[in-house]
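TL;DR need structure tokens for one chain.
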Amino acid sequence: MIHVAGWFFENNKSCALKSNFGESGWGTLFIKYNDFKNEEEIIDHIKKEFENDSIWANNLILVEEYIKPNQNNLSGSPSSELFLSSKGVQITYLCDQVLGETGDFLGVAIGKGVLDRKIISEIEIISLAIGKRFWNLGYRGFFDIDFILSDENILYIIETNMRRTGGTHVYDVANSICGKNWKENYFIISQDQFCYGDKGKRKKEIVEKIQEVMYPIKGKAEGVIISILNKKKSTLGFIIIGDSKKKCINFYNKMLNVINNN
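>> reply
TL;DR here they are.
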């Protein structure tokens, strides 16, 4: 398996290794062609990663070509969620995933202006075709399809996950408080593991400090909603709602400034 990564290097290509039991970016290793001088360096690097992380032990591992994402969007990694009921196939939402530097999943962006209309149309066609196939095979329930949008604006399917997804709760919130036309009227972004650093800060204290940007702001359907408060780590999850991407970024920066300056 490791030598497959060497094959990609010999053919001037980058690749990605994925653990069968990985999740949210854990168990994904990118091997960038320009980061290595020869195949031996790649093999040594992979072996060290395998020794340091149990996710790779006694496990099926997929090695595939790395597709450089088009980062004119947030991450270049759009995703669709579907729900298969006894009546048929329904697309619940499309999003751009919010990813960390190593490909770890942080959250989603949905709604107004998140994806180009042409890309939306292509994702919907592909998603419905896959959804109908899964439905015919007997699957019922939620699942998603993750894509990479390349520099050439070509969509590549990466994987599907047969479960509720990392953005299901964001979609539910949008439907509940933003009205039926939220996709046209609101930009919504989430993050599930925002680290506020100081372990000495109590959760209640953090929530009190960001009151000025908490939803709703002056009676409007915008602001920050706390979705997760981790009891063991200094992290929280949030959903930010605004009428534009710029507005959401402004709310995020205000929240960040309040936390860091106190």
